[in-house]
Design goal:
The complex is a heterodimer of chains A (388) and B (160).
Chain A lengths: L6 H5 L6 H8 L5 E2 L11 H12 L12 H15 L9 E4 L1 H13 L5 E6 L5 H7 L3 E6 L10 H7 L4 E6 L12 H14 L2 E5 L25 E6 L12 E4 L2 H14 L5 H13 L1 H25 L11 E2 L10 H12 L1 E2 L1 E2 L11 E4 L4 H19 L1
Parallel strand pairs in A: 1-10, 3-4, 3-5, 5-6, 6-7
Antiparallel strand pairs in A: 2-8, 7-8, 9-12, 11-12
Chain B lengths: L1 H10 L5 H8 L3 H13 L20 E9 L8 H8 L4 E6 L6 E7 L2 H12 L5 E8 L5 E2 L2 E2 L14
Antiparallel strand pairs in B: 1-3, 1-4, 2-3, 5-6
The chains are: A alpha/beta (388), B alpha+beta (160).
Chain lengths: 388, 160
């Protein structure tokens, strides 16, 4: 028998950290700094609402685009936080996590051979989703000396006449980089000039530590009409397992995405949608507390790296830091594997997020301070041995 | 800054000034002097440890006592409150709105000891009209800390 395997699926490379993950899975007592999700529980009022709607038997499909009430709350929320205006009826689609929205975006917009610019290091799903939609991913290698921000020059150099979409993954996983308004303005200018559409993945928008709100590129004049903003509940409200995200943009694109969503998914989980309404209405204080806790941990890590003499630019977003380990002359994977075996600390090799992440490791601070202290003591010991 | 320092200390009074300085992005000198000032001003009144005595096997009973009193002219409730809070076995005294006036939290070794205190010391104060004693059977959460088992991290170890 021959298994029918599609060429595109067959050619997809498995996640870069799969091998490493297998080693981690076999070890006990690992202090992990490897997760990409909050350590906080979902706020109790949200969980309580989830339980309540189950009790009430609200277990049917919702409309394809999501509960109207939820879309209205989303519309209010992004107006308040980013001053973005979207019509809840035609310009917002509720999805199964931000991940689904990424997939829909490419499938709705790409034709075979269209080029998609993907700044790297960045989250692992842009490239495969782009390939599955017959697009051609074109990586842009971001640089540590720019604090992993995308510059207008880099964007311009990567453009060709087949370029259709720019992925803008900020605040960034894995580097923690954020784009300031002036950075976005420069990028926007190029996008308008070259007629490029933007997929702005802003899933970490609530987790910035500059003291100012996250700026969306859709706020920049001339960009609303050429941007799909993707966001969700996972990171801001500690709701990863609820699988709920959303995307917003011009109705010409959102309606195409809704068609695919309708046939592939039907609707996002009803229970999660009701719970998310409560999140948006009642949980701002809790988000604030979580943000403050992340910020304290971030400062603690930066302080620890300074003491260890480990070079790391100071990131102001998400919950990751991305220190440089080039001085040890090992690949990121080699470094991570030895750190795991010798000190039982799990971090993610930077090149799992694209080639330009080579020589770096991603450390997540979605962990208690206690946990981070122990991990830093172990890493410090490890570095001491390597340097001797 | 004060509020942030207090928020940290309220949850963990073991934090050293140097640690607080790192967490808040300040210097340990500033933090230390701020804490000293707050101790002097009695903003920080003490440093306690939260203990789940149930797990220690030490006998302890805690009672909440509702006390109705006649307020005194010119003194309100302060005078009677003072007469109650001066007893060392009294943990807390609050002035309460609603059906009664003072809420007294009392700790003793046995039920008898607490009952004895109420009948011989509290009820006999001339301004006390009545008392109602409620014994605490189990503490689930105290001072914002849940006493149940610590939760295990159930997240998978590595995620992109």
């Amino acid at each position: 028998m021959r298994y029918p395997i599609g060429e595109k699926a067959g050619a997809l490379k498995p996640s870069g950290i799969r091998k490493f993950f297998d080693i981690v899975a076999e070890m006990d007592d690992v202090v992990s700094l490897g997760v990409g999700e909050p350590d906080f529980d979902t706020p109790w009022s949200v969980r309580d609402e989830g339980i309540y709607t189950l009790e009430k038997g609200r277990t049917f499909y919702t409309s394809n685009a999501g509960l109207r009430e939820l879309r209205e709350e989303i519309s209010r929320f992004v107006k308040k936080r980013q001053n973005l205006r979207y019509d809840p009826l035609s310009e917002i689609l509720v999805t199964v996590g931000g991940s689904e929205a990424i997939d829909l975006c490419f499938r709705a917009m790409l034709n075979p051979g269209d080029e998609v610019l993907i700044p790297e290091p960045s989250y692992v799903s842009y490239t495969p989703c782009c390939i599955l939609a017959d697009g051609k991913p074109v990586p842009i290698a971001l640089k540590a000396e720019d604090e992993f921000r995308l510059t207008a020059k880099e964007l311009e150099d990567a453009c060709s006449d087949r370029t259709r979409i720019l992925v803008l993954p900020f605040p960034n996983n894995p580097t923690g980089a954020v784009m300031r308004r002036e950075d976005l303005e420069a990028v926007a200018k190029v996008c308008i000039e070259k007629d490029i559409f933007v997929l702005s993945d802003e899933i970490y928008s609530e987790l910035t530590y500059t003291g100012q709100n996250h700026v969306s590129i859709a706020e920049i004049p001339g960009m609303w009409e050429r941007t799909i903003v993707i966001n969700g509940f996972s990171k801001a409200f500690a709701m990863t397992g609820w699988r709920l995200g959303y995307c917003m943009g011009p109705k010409e694109i959102i309606s195409q995405m809704t068609k695919i969503h309708q046939f592939a998914i039907m609707c996002a989980p009803t229970n999660s949608q009701y719970a998310a309404i409560t999140a948006l209405r009642d949980c701002f204080g809790e988000v604030e507390k979580m943000r403050e806790a992340y910020n304290q941990r971030r400062r603690f890590l930066m302080h620890s790296f300074r003491e260890m003499g480990l070079p790391c630019f100071e990131p102001f977003g998400a919950f990751y830091v991305f220190p440089c380990i080039k001085e040890f002359g090992m690949s990121s994977e080699e470094f991570a594997t030895r750190l795991l075996k010798e000190e039982k600390v799990a971090v993610v090799p930077g090149d799992a997020f694209g080639e330009s992440g080579a020589g770096f490791i991603r450390i997540s601070y979605a962990y208690s301070l206690e946990n981070l202290k122990e991990a830093m003591a172990r890493i410090s010991r490890f570095l001491g041995r390597l340097r001797n | 800054m004060r509020e942030q320092i207090l928020a940290l200390l309220e949850r963990n009074s073991k934090l050293a000034p140097e640690e607080i300085a790192v967490l808040l992005g300040s210097s340990s000198e500033i933090i230390e002097s701020e804490i000293k000032k707050m101790e002097k001003e009695n903003v920080i009144c003490g440093y306690n440890t939260l203990i789940d005595w149930e797990k220690t096997g030490v006998d302890k009973v805690t009672a909440l006592i509702e006390v109705r009193v006649t307020p005194q002219r010119g003194q309100g409730f302060d005078n009677i409150a003072e007469r109650i809070y001066n007893y060392p076995e009294v943990q807390s005294v609050y002035l309460i709105s609603g059906g009664y006036d003072l809420l007294v939290i009392l700790e003793g070794k046995t039920l008898m000891e607490v009952a004895h205190f109420v009948s011989s010391k509290l009820s006999t104060l001339e301004t006390v009209i009545s008392t109602a004693t409620h014994f605490i059977l189990k503490k689930y959460k105290d001072d914002g800390i849940i006493f149940a088992k610590k939760k295990k991290d159930e997240r998978i170890l590595i995620e992109p």
